[in-house]
Structure formats: structure tokens, C-alpha cells
Specification:
single chain, alpha/beta, Rossmann fold, about 15% strand
Length: about 260
């Protein structure tokens, strides 16, 4: 079966992007879908959130510079069917160095295409930095589907328009003709706040085919889990965060035809 590549991106930080990358990957793995989580954020929050320690030289920084392969960077996690390419602080230098190379938007594709073609994974999920810089744009140039995490607050709607315009620019420039908006994931939802409900309703009106039914709640447990190096499914398996991410994974499996 072919590998499907998802990139989770948003130019804004603090919108549940890394939380979603980690927990969607874990929820797919729980369904016995071989999943590779790629941490492309130099802060390496996704790396620590699955209990893997940051290690110098263990990221895509070397392969992006032509040193070594992506395969050499893959490490197992404590969770069956879930592997990781970690990140490290040195990856921040790639933002500057990539801009000075030929085909600078295709570097990541060159590095990761052998992993995709190996068919060792049914899904690849990439967690991007909280900015539409070189690393994020490289991720979009490689991915099949963009998943946007959107915080349930009004200003988030402006950010949605910006990232959708960037998606169209990439396609118009033929950087990645087959890139599609895979869907919008509403995060940090607080049912007690009317504005949160209004934002969800507004996105449903604008993108009815793209918004996922599963809405990720704002919970203390979801905030705590990364500090224990665990996805929410391991930290609080029966809590509302786990219920929401399992529901999201079920939708992703159905929408994109992923099979165990």
C-alpha cells in the first residue's frame, strides 16, 4: 500500500499543532497503522512528547545538508507501530541554509522520498515549526495533505485564510501539484465559551467538507501529558482528550482510506 504524507502546519504557535501531530500519530498506531512521526520543529517538542530524548546529530539536519540518510535518523518509540525521526536545536540553522541551496523547496522531498517509497509506513505525519518558513514550506512541498489545527478563537480565522493562500501559491507555482487541504482540526475547544462554538460554526459554514467532526477539547490532562513524555492515549487513556483523538484518527482513516 502507498504511503500517505500529512503535514500539520500553522504559522501561529500555541494552536495544538504538536499536540495533534503526536496524538493523531499515536491514535493511528493504536489502530495498527504503521506510522512515522517526523519532528521538523527545532524546539523538538514532539520528540520529547513521545518520550524520546533529544540527541545531537539525530534529526533531519544532517540529511538536509547531504550528510547521511533519513533512514539512519528513524528511532523506535515505546509504542508499537509508531516510529519517530526526532528533532534537535541545530535544525534551526536549516531555515537559513536551505534558502541558499538550489531547489530549496524540494530538499526535504529529496531526503524523504526513499522513506516514502520503501512503503514501510502507511502514514507519515510531519510536525512543522510555528511559522511558514523554509522547513514548513519544504514540508508542504513533500506532503499529500495539509492538516490545519485551528484554535477555537476568533483571531484564528485570519490565520486560516493566510495558510490557505499559501497553499494555493505553492500549487500555482507547481511546487507540489498534488498537495490538498486534508482538513481543519478544531482544537482547544471550551464548551462553556460561546465564542468557541461560534468559531467552529463559522469554519463549518466556510469549509463544510473539510472540517473534521472530532473537536479537540481544552483539558488539563492534554496539557500535562507532554511533560511526562507520553501521548494522551498513554497518559489518560479514557479521558476526553483520548476520546477526541481516537475519533479524529477514525475520521482520518475513513477519509484517506488508511488501512491497518
Amino acid at each position: 500500500m502507498a504511503t500517505t504524507v500529512f503535514t500539520i502546519a500553522n504559522q501561529k504557535g500555541g494552536v495544538g499543532k504538536t499536540t495533534t501531530a503526536v496524538n493523531l500519530a499515536a491514535a493511528l498506531a493504536e489502530k495498527k497503522i504503521h506510522t512515522l512521526l517526523i519532528d521538523l520543529d527545532p524546539q523538538a517538542n514532539a520528540t520529547s512528547a513521545v518520550g524520546v530524548e533529544k540527541q545531537a546529530g539525530r534529526s533531519l539536519y544532517g540529511p538536509l545538508r547531504g550528510e547521511g540518510s533519513a533512514f539512519e535518523m528513524i528511532v523506535p518509540t515505546a509504542y508499537e507501530h509508531l516510529a519517530l525521526i526526532p528533532s534537535e536545536e541545530d535544525l534551526a540553522a536549516a531555515e537559513i541554509e536551505l534558502a541558499q541551496t538550489e531547489n530549496y523547496l524540494a530538499r526535504l522531498r529529496t531526503v524523504l522520498d526513499p522513506v516514502r517509497r520503501s512503503n514501510g509506513y502507511r502514514a507519515i505525519i510531519i510536525d512543522c515549526p510555528p511559522a511558514l518558513g523554509m522547513l514548513s514550506m519544504n514540508s508542504l512541498a513533500f506532503a499529500d495533505h495539509l492538516l490545519i489545527t485551528l484554535q477555537c478563537e476568533y483571531l484564528a480565522l485570519e490565520g486560516l485564510g493566510q495558510i490557505l493562500r499559501n497553499l494555493e501559491r505553492l500549487k500555482e507555482a507547481h511546487v507540489n501539484d498534488h498537495l490538498q487541504l486534508g482538513g481543519v482540526i478544531m482544537t482547544m475547544f471550551d464548551s462553556r465559551i460561546n465564542l468557541a462554538k461560534q468559531v467552529v460554526d463559522e469554519v463549518r459554514q466556510h469549509l463544510p467538507e473539510k472540517i473534521f467532526k472530532a473537536v479537540i477539547p481544552r483539558t488539563v490532562r492534554l496539557s500535562e501529558a507532554p511533560s511526562f513524555g507520553k501521548p494522551i492515549l498513554a497518559y489518560d487513556p479514557n479521558g476526553p482528550g483520548s476520546v477526541a483523538y481516537r475519533a479524529l484518527a477514525a475520521e482520518v482513516i475513513e477519509r484517506f482510506g488508511l488501512k491497518a
